[in-house]
Write a structure and sequence with these properties.
single chain; 247 residues; mainly alpha; two-stranded antiparallel ribbon; 70% helix
């Protein structure tokens, strides 16, 4: 027996009769109507899918990459749209993020600058302290250097006898040099009328300052020392002559 189908007149009549019966039942029962509607939608989707497959088969699959790219662009646009809508509806979120970012950058920059300034101040204070210590040490050493001069001045004023100083100069000079820091004074010289006659401590390089043919040294005839020596003699007080290049 031949099975009726949609292409045969009898099959078409039976299909129409079945549809009429279903519509009648659907009109009487809402659940049947909803199921019928869903079946029709599924059938339409199935037909569209078949049509799409036929089209892709006829073109040999050339639109596959294009359709994928189109779907990717559509998804990206949808994502951007959702993000934009979220930001517009919650505008305080990006504002708060930018404010926090600015505060973090500002605090970080302030911390770097503060640390650099602190390090610079520390180094500056260290340098100032070292300079002050060196200046104080030089001041103390300079005062110690002048102690033998002041002491010798007092002793000579108390006893200006030449024979006494000619005999006791070395012992007195050695005692005075022992009162100062080692190296503060190179030597002490006895120069009556500007002529260098005694040096303590005596070293071999001092020979030309005392003995001929170059010695003894007469500072009143020395063009470098003469002006300073005469100025000290006229003041009748302790003075400093120099600077002098001794080497």
């Amino acid at each position: 027996m031949e099975k009726p189908n949609g292409d045969h007149p009898a099959g078409a009549a039976e299909t129409k009769q079945d549809n009429s019966n279903l519509k009648a039942i659907a009109g009487a029962n809402p659940l049947v109507a909803q199921a019928l509607n869903q079946i029709q939608q599924n059938e339409g989707a199935y037909q569209m899918e078949r049509l799409g497959l036929a089209n892709r088969s006829s073109t040999g699959g050339k639109d596959t990459k294009r359709s994928r790219a189109r779907r990717g662009c559509t998804a990206a646009f949808s994502y951007v749209k959702v993000v934009g809508q979220t930001l517009r509806s919650n505008l305080w979120v990006p504002v708060l993020v930018f404010i926090l970012f600015g505060l973090m950058c500002g605090l970080g920059l302030w911390g770097v600058i503060a640390a650099a300034d602190n390090e610079a101040d520390k180094r500056r204070n260290t340098a100032i302290g070292a300079a002050q210590d060196a200046a104080k040490g030089f001041e103390i050493q300079l005062r110690e250097t002048f102690i033998p001069m002041f002491t010798m001045d007092i002793l000579v004023r108390q006893n200006p006898d030449w024979d006494h100083w000619n005999a006791s100069f070395d012992s007195t000079a050695a005692e005075l040099l022992g009162k100062v820091t080692n190296g503060s004074l190179w030597n002490i010289q006895l120069q009556p009328h500007g002529v260098n006659t005694r040096i303590h401590p005596y070293r071999t390089e001092d020979y030309d300052q005392i003995y001929p043919p170059k010695g003894p040294l007469d500072i009143l005839q020395d063009p470098i020392r003469r002006a300073g020596a005469l100025s000290i003699i006229r003041s009748r007080d302790i003075g400093v002559n120099g600077p002098l290049y001794l080497v």
